[in-house]
C-alpha cells in the first residue's frame, strides 16, 4: 500500500487506513449503566478482547463517572479470543458482566454483550473487490460473509453487490452464530451457500483462511476494509503445515488429549472417546493452551479438542505436533490421509 | 561442583547429585485408590507442580491399573506453583482431587494432598554447612527451616545439630504452613525465632532468598542437599532490583492493581483499598500474572496483590515496573523509602 493512499482523500476517507488512529467504538455505556441501576449492582466486570484491552481503563473511567461511588468496576486480565472465551470467574463474582467486541454465542441474563461495530466504510473496498469476482454475466452467484465488527454494514454490502447484478447468497449458519452472514474463526456454516465464490468483508487473514480451508471448493475473495486491500485466500502453506504435523505425529507413542475448560470450547465426548480407545492417550484439562504448558509433559504428540485455531494457526510454535481430532484419526490410521479437513466448532455450551 | 563428586561414592551416595536421575517419590497410590473406592468416584483429577508434570502420565498409568475400568483419570494442565494454586476447575468437576508435591495449606475433604517427600540424604550437607555456622561455643543458637519436600527428615537435621552442641530453634509459623520448621516462598514465619543465624536445608535459592529478605537481621546459611552445595543467602542484587522498580514506578500516572483469582493468592482488601484511594488505579483480575497479559493494558506501573514472588523474582521480565503493595505505598509517597520490606502472605483462603 502506498503512503499516498493513506493521505489521499476521496473514497479512502472512511477506510481503515484513514481511521486507523481514530476509529471510534460505541461502548454502549448507557445500556450498562441502566443494567447496573436496574439490578442495584455493586460490582461490574468488564472483559475486552486482546486488541481492545488498551481501551479498558478509559471505558472504566467513563463508567465510574456515570455510576454511583459505591459501584466497583473490575477489568478482566484474562486473555480473551472470542465469545467462547468468557471470564467465568469474573462473571460469577460480579452483578453485571460486560463482554465487549463479540456478538452473543448464547444469550444469558447475566451477560451484556457489546458488539463494538466498526465505523470503517465497506463499499469502497467491496467495489475494489469486484475485479476479483467473476463478472455477474459469467457467474452471478456470490456468497457474502463478514465478522461481528462489520455486521452493522452487512445490508449495505449486500445492496451494493445486488445493484451490480449479483445474486447474493447468505445464511445464518448455526446456533453458534448470532447474525446472518456472520463467520467465526471456528465456524463457517454461513458460507455453506449455493455459490462457487464467496466474498469475505473484514479485517485480517484469520477468518478468510479458515473459510477457505472449510470450503476448499469455493474461491474466497477477501475485501479487507481495515487494511484497505483485496486478496485471494490461499490455503497452500496452511495445508502443507497440517500434513506435516500429521506425518510427524504418526510416530507418536504417547498422546496428550487436551480438554479445554473455556466455557465455549469444551468437547468432552470427543476428548474422552479418544482416551477410551487409546491406552497411550491421557486426558489433560486446561484453559489456555500454550507451548509452555505442554512442554512440561513428556508426550510425543497432542490432540487439541479446544479451539481449532490454536492447533492450526499456532501449531508450529509447539514443541511437539498438535493435531485436531480429525487429524488424530488420520495419524493413528483410523482414517485415510485425504480425509483431512478443517476442524470447526458447533453449538454453544 | 566437580564431576568427581558426582561419581564418587562414600558420603555422597545419597545426595541429590547421585540420585538426580533416579530420585524416587511415594505417590501414595493406595491412599488414592482407597478414597476412590470409598466415594465410588468416577472421575479422579491429578495436579502436579511444574517440575513433576513429566511424571503425570506414569502416575495416571499406575492408577488406571489399580482402578476400575469406568474410572476416568484427568491430569491438570494448568500451571501450578504451590498449595495456594489449586486447579479449582478440576477440583470441582472430579470426585477425588489429588494435589501432589505440596503440603496442605488448608485441609479439605475434597482434596488429597500427597506431599512427595524427597529421599535425598540431608545429614552430609548439614555437616558441610557447619563450617558456615558460628561454632556452638561462640553462638549456640540456630534456627532451622526446610521445605515440604524434606520435612520427613526434619528431626534428623535437628538431632544432628543438637548432637554437635547447638540449641535448635524451630516454630510452626502460622496457619498457612502445615509443619513446624516449614517455609513457603511467601511465608517465613517459621524462621521468626530467637537466633541470629538460620540454617535452611533444601533445594535451590528460591526459598532462602525470600527467607533472607524477610529476616535481613539474620545470617542465612543454605544447605542444599539436592545440588550438594553450601552457600550464604545474598540479597544485594535482589534489593537493588526492588529499589530500582520502586524508583521507576514513582513517575507512574496510571496503575493496574492486580487481584489474583487463584484460591490461595487473593488479597481483596489490599487491592480494593488501593483502588479506592487512587483514582488513577484500576482493578485487574486474573489467575496467571504474566508479561503477555499485562502488556496489552496501557498502564504505567502495576501493583501485584497476588503471589509476591512473581513481583520480586519475575519483576524484570515485565515491560513496566511491578510492585508489591508495600512498595506501592513507597512509590506514591505514603511511606518512606526505608520501609521497603519483603512481601509475605498469611492465612489460607
Automatic annotation (TrEMBL), chains A, B:
EC number: 2.5.1.108
Family recorded in the similarity comment: Belongs to the DPH1/DPH2 family.
One GO term (biological process): protein histidyl modification to diphthamide
UniProt-recorded name of the protein: 2-(3-amino-3-carboxypropyl)histidine synthase
Gene symbol of the encoding locus: dph2
GO molecular function: 2-(3-amino-3-carboxypropyl)histidine synthase activity; 4 iron, 4 sulfur cluster binding; metal ion binding
Free-text function comment from the UniProt entry: Catalyzes the first step of diphthamide biosynthesis, i.e. the transfer of the 3-amino-3-carboxypropyl group from S-adenosyl-L-methionine (SAM) to the C2 position of the imidazole ring of the target histidine residue in translation elongation factor 2 (EF-2).
Keyword Ubl conjugation listed: no
Amino acid at each position: 500500500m502506498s503512503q499516498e493512499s493513506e493521505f489521499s482523500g476521496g473514497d479512502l476517507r472512511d477506510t481503515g487506513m484513514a481511521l486507523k488512529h481514530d476509529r471510534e467504538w460505541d461502548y454502549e455505556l448507557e445500556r450498562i449503566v441502566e443494567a447496573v441501576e436496574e439490578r442495584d449492582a455493586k460490582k461490574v466486570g468488564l472483559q475486552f478482547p486482546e486488541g481492545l484491552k488498551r481501551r479498558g481503563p478509559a471505558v472504566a473511567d467513563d463508567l465510574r463517572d456515570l455510576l454511583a461511588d459505591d459501584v466497583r468496576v473490575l477489568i478482566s486480565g484474562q486473555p480473551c479470543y472470542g465469545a467462547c472465551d468468557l471470564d467465568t470467574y469474573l462473571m460469577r463474582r460480579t452483578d453485571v458482566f460486560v463482554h465487549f467486541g463479540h456478538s452473543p454465542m448464547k444469550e444469558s441474563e447475566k451477560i451484556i454483550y457489546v458488539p463494538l461495530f466498526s465505523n470503517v466504510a465497506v463499499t469502497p473496498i467491496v467495489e475494489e473487490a469486484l475485479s476479483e469476482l467473476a463478472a455477474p454475466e459469467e457467474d452471478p452467484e456470490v456468497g457474502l460473509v463478514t465478522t461481528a465488527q462489520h455486521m452493522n454494514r452487512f445490508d449495505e454490502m449486500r445492496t451494493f453487490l445486488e445493484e451490480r447484478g449479483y445474486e447474493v447468497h447468505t445464511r445464518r449458519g448455526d446456533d453458534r452464530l448470532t447474525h446472518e452472514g456472520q463467520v467465526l474463526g471456528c465456524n463457517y456454516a454461513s458460507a455453506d451457500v449455493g455459490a462457487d465464490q464467496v466474498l469475505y468483508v473484514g479485517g485480517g487473514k484469520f477468518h478468510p483462511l479458515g473459510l477457505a480451508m472449510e470450503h476448499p471448493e469455493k474461491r474466497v475473495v477477501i475485501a479487507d476494509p481495515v487494511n484497505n486491500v483485496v486478496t485471494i485466500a490461499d490455503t497452500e502453506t496452511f495445508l502443507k503445515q497440517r500434513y506435516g504435523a500429521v506425518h510427524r505425529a504418526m510416530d507418536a507413542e504417547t498422546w496428550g488429549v487436551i480438554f479445554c475448560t473455556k466455557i465455549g470450547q469444551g468437547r468432552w465426548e470427543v476428548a474422552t472417546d479418544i482416551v477410551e480407545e487409546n491406552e497411550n492417550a491421557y486426558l489433560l484439562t486446561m484453559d489456555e493452551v500454550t507451548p509452555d504448558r505442554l512442554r512440561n509433559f513428556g508426550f510425543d504428540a497432542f490432540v487439541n479438542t479446544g479451539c481449532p485455531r490454536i492447533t492450526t494457526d499456532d501449531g508450529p510454535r509447539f514443541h511437539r505436533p498438535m493435531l485436531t481430532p480429525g487429524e488424530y484419526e488420520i495419524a493413528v490410521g483410523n482414517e485415510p490421509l485425504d480425509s483431512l479437513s478443517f476442524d470447526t466448532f458447533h453449538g454453544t455450551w
